[in-house]
Amino acid sequence: MPKLCATEGLTDVQQDILKAVRTFVGEQILPVATELEHADEYPTEIVEQMKKLGIFGLTIPEEFGGLGESLLTYALVVEEISRGWMSVSGIINTHFIVAYLLLQHGTEEQKRHYLPRMATGEVRGAFSMSEPELGSDVSAIKTTATPRDGGYSISGQKMWVTNGGSANLVAVLVRTPEGHDKPHRNLTTFLVEKESGFGETAQGVTVPGKIEKMGYKGVDTTELLFDDHRIGAEQILGGVPGQGFYQMMDGVEVGRVNVAARAVGVATRAFELGISYAQQRRTFGKKIAEHQAILFRLAEMGTKVEAAHQMVVRAARIKDSGNRNDLEAGMAKYLASEYCRDVVEDSFRIHGGYGFAKEFEIERLYREAPMLLIGEGTADIQRMIVGRRLLEDYALPG
Fold first, then answer.
1. What is the pTM of this model?
2. 131 touches 158 (CB < 8 A)
């Protein structure tokens, strides 16, 4: 296990899982990550190996064929996978969120129908809230589901759907006519089934193609277009319309723990690359690690990695205890993503001119880190959430 980011109180099972994943990352991901990333190639072989390892069913209960592990275990696994290649963790993140939504909010029939196949990776999940014009304002969703012929007709445009092409089950947040005064109470989550791939993947559902990105390559990020997509009322998550906003916000809390864990993984790898290079590169007659400027930089990098990891662990454990963790998840996501950017940039600086060359791994990390600043809510959104919760907790009497 790494020198940094040790986690106290893990069970033998958790330690065995992390050991297996770390071995997998070292043998199957790190050797090919940069090549696949530069080619923007989907890591099919890696995904197949993750299925065999049971990672797609990591948090799904044993009664549905999964391993029944905690959010903490999942977060630590994500740290390890992101240390190898962040895009791979993106493939399982949305899948995990959909499984979580089904477990927490789905009907018994929905759980029995989807979870066993999600545990094996046969059914792969994605979730969709964003649209081209709304950004972080979820209550402004325009995609609508109109009652029709005993079911619904969905029309609209969704944006930034991770796994939009490869997934065959998408949890989609849309507007339904509940008639409440508050816009967020008129939102409903539908479980939309489609084929994997691009083009028309189901009746009235089109995935145009991959969105080209500066980083976070390999994993497909897409639009999702609905044109009179007919869907039954039994595909409403939980069976009751108007609950979508609360369901999705619950999912986003665990998603923010995931993004924070990804940031720790990327920062850990950047630190490893920086401290290794600093002990190999020599200037002015000695290793650059012996220069005080570099030594201080390494000290700050290591401290930031460790601090971010501990916040991820705390946020995950609070959620595992059954309590709301929007404050802790917001803090962890904000701090970890900001620190990740800092650590990656410091490692880039340590590499000097070589950090600018594509043959060096740090170049890839430098392009990947910015996504973590905006994924699952921007830094400003996290500060808003954290600030409001702190005002609630520290409100003056009267």
1. 0.94
2. yes
